[in-house]
Write a structure and sequence with these properties.
Largest sheet of chain A: 2 strands, antiparallel
Helix content of chain A: over 70%
Radius of gyration of chain A: 21 Å
Structural class of chain B: mainly alpha
Strand order of the largest sheet of chain A: 1-2
Structural class of chain A: mainly alpha
Oligomer: heterodimer
Shape of chain B: globular
Radius of gyration of chain B: 29 Å
Number of helices of chain A: 21
Chain lengths: ~475, ~650
């Protein structure tokens, strides 16, 4: 079995093992999840180190019917996202350790990790679609079964929205394959082969279908309304995976599929895409300013951050595309940390409103430290990871080779987004950690972080600092694989 | 020069504070929080020694600029981080490290017993470290990094006593205003990297000089200059973005001293010094800088004269003096701007620490003119230090302020035009507000004041000795004038700027040549205005002693005008409220109620429709597959047609 097959099968086996172990009790399932999570992360790390990220490892099987074949490949972009998946999966297991969840909970996370890995590995579009849809099922259950009060509604909304997006994507893919067949007479779903021949008049429609499919996932305003509900109602670890990895599927699809397949449209539609991206950055920040629930606030901040990523990716400049890709990783780490912290708060006090706390800096100084650190990373303090990505994306748009994109309006909108980030993040921080406790405050129910929680957050914060101070090695991992997308 | 050739004192400049902060955070804070200041004070001593060693190095012609590591790169785009030790940098660095270290010593006494002692020292030192980094950065991206770090540290320090609502508000105001300024810096940065393909000061100077020689300047240069000026206006508290600084005195007094004297507000002026070769080539930018500076200097001096809170008077005085530095820059007097920055650092640190001692005497973080009066005898050392600093500030010969401030005002006089006439009210106003404050605090007391009833006491030695040493600097720094001028110019010239036809930065257009300082002119005019200022202050506090209270009583409307800074604070508050209301509209109405409501509503509607179509949903997989196939075929058919 090819090492890449191992990579996605391993967590799937882990999921099955969890379910089996669940028969011997919840503890056994939990330990099983930890062991497989660690093994998965180890495997991902090993493959990344062995290939140096740059070398493309592939696994290929003989074509099946209609040109569908089992094609996997991993370059720096895929591997970095798989590493992120494996890392966050492990973090999620560690963070939910005290939750008395059934075996299904742990299995769902491993199954999700497996499907996500498949998405990032697949180079056959049919396979890509299968994995893409497969991610929905575990996440649907994570939200719907283990979420908070309004979980059913949020789960259904999440499923319908994203499913509608993926149906559009599927139709676009089918149309693409059929169009290719009518031009060349060959059935193929192979991404590399599909790049070659022209598509003809259906091109714009196919591109639009792909954009809509990926746009729901990113999410691009106005297709975003599933996100705040899903993030808010999901359990903390679910929000981490949702924001940390699943949102990245949209951008990944854009970078891997839509833009390379249609470089001409990518360039000619770029001003519109950049406009939407800039709208995301500003609109997300404005909405975040108006929130009174910590989780909703972070969810809207994700919309803003993904706007920066999109701005970088569509800019077509090397630093923009690489920065957009790096910002996906950064956002996974930083927002992951923030969702975990809100989760720890919720675990303790069963509240997450901005006005439900107060004076926590005195009661839980460690939590205040990590929250402050992550908030600063999130609003793009230079020296931490968020700045690197934002700065490279904006630099890309300011320096874009695509006509119209280097108009100041995009960079200015981005800079407005950067400015507004402080306007939602810091007042929220002050309300929870600095302001005195109100009459209904639940701060007294919040003991400080324990060793397990502290270790998880140190790991995340160390990564934020590392990427912030020395992003060059991370960019070197990603950049070669995104270099060619506009050629 | 390679990184391995960097002298050890330059490394220590960073290694010592980082080590002290890490040791304090990880080792001392959990175990012995009351010892946190010890490694930090040691680090201060090391940093001071190192920065003087570096100053000596630059003074003898050994400035350097070297890249150390590649921070980020993609394609042809790359950003390197490194160290630049040159004239303007070390001139400010030497003052910052000396004054900053003495303020650290003062803080060790002032903050003793505070519950947040160790947190205070760690952030305080981070503030200091950020400023060191800012002064030794060799490119714009790195400068921006430390610039933001300065902002965050100041946020944490201003909001240090976060249980107070005023402190929380002030911290947020300071950070947000600076963030609005950073909006300009960030955009400037993006366009600098776009047009110059590099962020290094040195290479940008060369490109500008070359372009100027060729007569083809990048079109974006005026915009970049304007954005940098905007950024400097926020950090260095210039109109229209000055309003955060007076509120920022909510932090503990050592914070105010460090922030006003050494680490924060000087950053904006320093940014413009670094960027001057870019700015000066656009003919209309230097007069703009001079105009902003002159306006702010007068505007803030007037408001300073009406304030009652001692630290607030000093805060407006800082705004005014930063305006004087900007004025100097606008006139092309870079050396004088840097020199005044240094001198101001000395006397303003003394004034703030003395205000701290005055508050300390009655166990308050800050004092009001009503609380004090006639304290000359009770606080003799504090009085002496304050007096020295006040004389220096108002530019009395031979105190340091004379050589810096009055030299700038004289440059303005020589420049002519309307700026000529601005120099007079600045000199008058500075002397007036500072002596009004001095006389109200230490002389008297007046019937309206409770000063002597409060039994003030002189502060303990740790709160007096460091202030005394800084006061020595405020008195004697004038002797440094030629040295600093030389250092600043040498620093520019020591690096490859000597392209044909471009002798040095000072001769770039926009910086008109100013005739040599005429001592008699200067002594006469500046001194005279300061004397008038002093006499006016003396008359209104000692002779007509109730004036300060009387005009407030008689014309509350006038006081409201001063209280709102001639209405500007109201304009700003309206703007902030407007943005917040817009965000609430977008977030709660547009996004939640209208758009999400529409989508959820359509789901409800479709539920009704689906109920009527439920017959087709047989629940049998085969049926569904047929539907799917039919739909897909339809769409494919359309796509192919």
């Amino acid at each position: 079995m090819s090492p890449l097959t191992v990579l996605w099968v391993l967590p799937l086996v882990g999921a099955a093992a969890c379910l089996v172990a669940g028969r011997f009790g919840r503890e056994a399932a939990k330990i099983c999840a930890l062991v497989f999570g660690a093994a998965f992360f180890g495997a991902a790390l090993t493959i990344t180190i062995l290939t140096g990220g740059a070398g493309s490892v592939s696994a290929a099987g003989a074509p099946l019917a209609f040109g569908v074949s089992y094609l996997l490949s991993a370059d720096g972009l895929s591997l970095s996202l798989i590493l992120l998946t494996a890392f966050l999966n492990l973090i999620c297991v560690a963070a939910s350790w005290k939750q008395d969840a059934s075996a299904g909970y742990w299995a769902a996370f491993l199954a999700l990790a497996s499907a996500l890995t498949g998405v990032f590995l697949a180079r056959d579009l049919f396979l890509f679609y299968i994995f893409w849809e497969a991610t929905l099922i575990p996440m649907f259950f994570i939200i719907g079964l283990w979420g908070s009060d309004n979980r059913r509604h949020a789960a259904v909304k999440f499923f319908l929205f994203t499913f509608a997006g993926s149906v559009l994507m599927l139709l676009a893919l089918i149309a693409l394959v059929v169009a290719k067949h009518s031009q060349t007479g060959v059935w193929t779903w192979d991404l590399a082969a599909l790049k070659e021949a022209p598509v003809g008049a259906a091109g714009p429609w196919i591109f639009l279908g792909l954009l809509l499919g990926f746009g729901v996932k990113i999410p691009v305003v106005p297709l975003h309304t599933w996100l705040p509900d899903a993030h808010t109602e999901a359990p903390a670890a679910g929000s981490v995976m949702l924001a940390g990895v699943m949102l990245k599927m949209g951008l990944y699809g854009l970078i891997r599929v839509a833009l390379p397949l249609f470089p001409a449209y990518a360039a000619s539609w770029a001003p519109w895409l950049a406009g939407l991206a800039a709208l995301n950055a500003v609109y997300g920040a404005l909405c975040a300013m108006a929130q009174t629930d910590l989780k909703r606030l972070i969810a809207y901040s994700s919309i803003a951050h993904l706007g920066f990523c999109l701005l970088g990716v569509v800019s077509g400049a090397p630093q923009g595309v690489a920065g957009g890709a790096l910002q996906m990783i950064n956002h996974g780490i930083t927002t992951g940390a923030l969702f975990l912290l809100v989760g720890f708060l919720y675990e303790r006090a069963h509240k997450r409103g901005l006005s439900d706390f107060g004076a926590l800096a005195g009661r839980a100084p460690r939590m205040a430290f990590f929250f402050g650190f992550s908030i600063l990373a999130s609003i793009g303090l230079p020296g931490l990871n968020g700045f690197v990505g934002e700065f490279m994306c904006l630099s890309g748009i300011a320096h874009s080779p695509i006509p119209l994109l280097n108009l100041p309006v995009f960079a200015v909108a981005g800079a407005v987004g950067v400015t507004l980030a402080a306007a939602y993040a810091l007042p929220a921080y002050q309300a929870v950690f600095w302001a005195p406790e109100g009459p209904d405050s639940v701060s007294s129910h919040v003991p400080d972080l324990d060793l397990r929680e502290k270790s998880i957050l140190w790991t995340l914060c160390a990564l934020m600092l590392w990427i912030g101070l020395s992003p060059a090695s991370w960019i070197a991992l990603i950049e070669p694989s995104v270099r060619g997308i506009y050629r | 020069m390679r990184p391995s050739d960097i002298p050890v004192e330059a490394w220590l400049l960073f290694a010592a504070p980082i080590a002290a902060i890490l040791f304090g955070f990880f080792v001392l804070r959990p175990r012995k929080p009351e010892w946190t200041h010890l490694p930090i004070l040691l680090s201060c001593a090391i940093v001071t020694a190192c920065s003087f060693a570096l100053a000596a190095r630059v003074y003898t012609g050994h400035s350097f600029d070297v890249n150390i590591w590649r921070w980020a790169a993609a394609g042809k785009w790359a950003v390197d981080f490194g160290l630049r030790v040159d004239g303007p940098g070390v001139a400010v660095l030497a003052m910052v490290s000396l004054v900053g270290s003495l303020i650290h010593v003062y803080a060790a006494g002032y903050m003793k017993g505070d519950a947040g002692f160790s947190r205070f020292f760690l952030v305080f030192h981070l503030f200091f470290l950020a400023m060191i980094g800012l002064l030794t950065a060799n490119n714009y991206v790195q400068l921006y990094l430390f610039w933001e770090l300065v902002g965050v540290a100041s946020y944490l320090l201003v909001g240090f006593w976060y249980h107070k609502e005023s402190a929380r508000k002030a911290a947020l105001k300071a950070f947000m205003t600076n963030r609005v300024g950073d909006f300009g810096f960030l955009l400037a940065l993006l366009y600098i990297l776009t047009y110059f393909k590099v962020g290094h000061f040195n290479l940008i100077y060369l490109q500008v000089a070359y372009a100027q020689q060729q007569g083809v300047l990048p079109e974006a240069l005026p915009v970049i200059g304007l954005l940098l000026i905007w950024a400097a206006c926020a950090k260095s508290a210039q109109f229209p973005l000055y309003f955060w600084l007076p509120d920022a005195m909510e932090g503990p007094t050592p914070t105010s001293a460090l922030m006003h004297a050494a680490t924060m507000v000087t950053a904006g002026v320093f940014l413009l010094v670094r960027s001057w070769p870019l700015i000066a080539v656009t003919p209309w930018l230097p007069p703009l800088v001079a105009g902003i500076g002159a306006f702010t200097a007068v505007f803030a001096a007037v408001i300073a004269a009406t304030k009652k809170d001692l630290k607030r008077i000093l805060a407006y005085s800082t705004v005014s003096h930063l305006g004087i530095m900007m004025l100097a820059l606008g006139l092309g007097q870079i050396g004088l701007a840097v020199f005044h920055l240094v001198v101001h650092g000395f006397f303003k640190a003394v004034l703030f620490l003395c205000a701290g001692n005055v508050g300390h005497a009655i166990h308050q973080p800050t004092a009001n003119v009503d609380d004090v009066g006639g304290w000359r005898k009770a606080l003799p050392w504090t009085y002496a230090c304050f007096l020295i600093a006040a004389l220096s500030l108002s530019g009395v010969w031979p105190f340091a302020g004379f050589f810096s401030k009055d030299a700038i005002l004289d440059a303005a006089w020589q420049y002519g035009g309307w700026i000529k006439w601005v120099s007079l009210p600045i000199a008058f106003g500075s002397a007036f507000y500072i002596f009004r404050m001095l006389l109200l605090t230490f002389h008297g007391s007046r019937p309206e004041q409770a000063g002597l009833k409060k039994h003030p006491h002189e502060a303990e030695p740790i709160l007096v000795v460091p202030v005394f040493f800084i006061a020595l600097g405020a008195a004697l720094a004038g002797l440094l004038a030629p040295g600093i001028e030389r250092l600043v110019l040498y620093g520019w010239r020591g690096l490859p700027l000597g392209l044909p036809g471009v002798a040095g930065v000072l001769n770039l257009p926009g910086s008109p040549a100013v005739p040599a300082l005429s001592f008699h002119d200067l002594f006469g005019r500046g001194g005279l205005m300061a004397l008038f200022g002093f006499l006016a202050a003396y008359y209104l506090t000692m002779v007509d002693a109730g004036w300060d209270w009387r005009w407030r009583r008689n014309s509350p409307a006038l006081e409201a005008v001063f209280e709102s800074d001639f209405g500007w604070k109201i304009v700003v508050a309206r703007f902030v409220d407007g943005v917040a209301a817009f965000a609430r509209f977008v977030g709660r109405v547009l996004d939640k109620k209208w758009w999400d409501g529409l989508i959820e509503g359509s789901a409800d509607a479709s539920r009704g429709v689906s109920a009527s179509l439920a017959g087709y949903a047989s629940g049998r997989l085969n049926d569904y597959l047929w539907w799917m196939a039919a739909g897909a075929a339809l769409l494919i058919g359309r796509a192919l047609r």
